[in-house]
């Protein structure tokens, strides 16, 4: 049996790719990035739905959105040259801390 974290990880990666491509899609006026956005979100939501079979919705969504926000911010910095100031980095650090707390200490995290 596969860990529920495998489809969750795939969902996160697919969502990060889709969201990063969303800027390049330029309001869905560019075909290639637009296709990547749609496919990425389809994969992300399908894999998230698989995760929800065994992990509570709130926990799965907290992990998915928290890790996604941090990775998308990193991709914005790398791909789109978007800067993050100190308060933004501190906030992202708090998100990472929250995801760690949920995974390490919560009995509902689907271990």
Automatic annotation (TrEMBL):
Gene Ontology BP terms: glycine betaine transport; xenobiotic detoxification by transmembrane export across the plasma membrane
A GO cellular-component term linked to this record: plasma membrane
InterPro entries cross-referenced by the UniProt entry: EmrE-like, Small_drug/metabolite_transptr, Small_multidrug_res
Cellular compartments annotated: Cell membrane
Residues spanning the membrane: 34-52, 59-80, 86-105
Keywords, alphabetical: Cell membrane, Membrane, Transmembrane, Transmembrane helix, Transport
Principal location class: membrane
GO molecular function, one term: choline transmembrane transporter activity
Xref: Pfam families: Multi_Drug_Res (PF00893)
Keyword Transmembrane: yes
Membrane topology: Multi-pass membrane protein
Family membership: Belongs to the drug/metabolite transporter (DMT) superfamily. Small multidrug resistance (SMR) (TC 2.A.7.1) family.
Record-given protein name: EamA family transporter
Source organism (scientific name): Xylophilus rhododendri
């Amino acid at each position: 049996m596969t860990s529920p974290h495998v489809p969750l990880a795939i969902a996160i990666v697919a969502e990060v790719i889709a969201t990063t491509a969303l800027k390049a899609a330029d309001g869905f006026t560019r075909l290639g990035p637009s296709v990547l956005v749609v496919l990425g979100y389809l994969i992300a939501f399908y894999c998230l739905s698989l995760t929800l079979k065994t992990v509570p919705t709130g926990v799965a969504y907290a992990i998915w959105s928290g890790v996604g926000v941090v990775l998308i911010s990193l991709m914005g910095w790398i791909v789109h040259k978007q800067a993050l100031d100190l308060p933004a980095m501190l906030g992202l650090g708090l998100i990472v801390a929250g995801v760690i707390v949920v995974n390490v200490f919560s009995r509902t995290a689907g271990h």
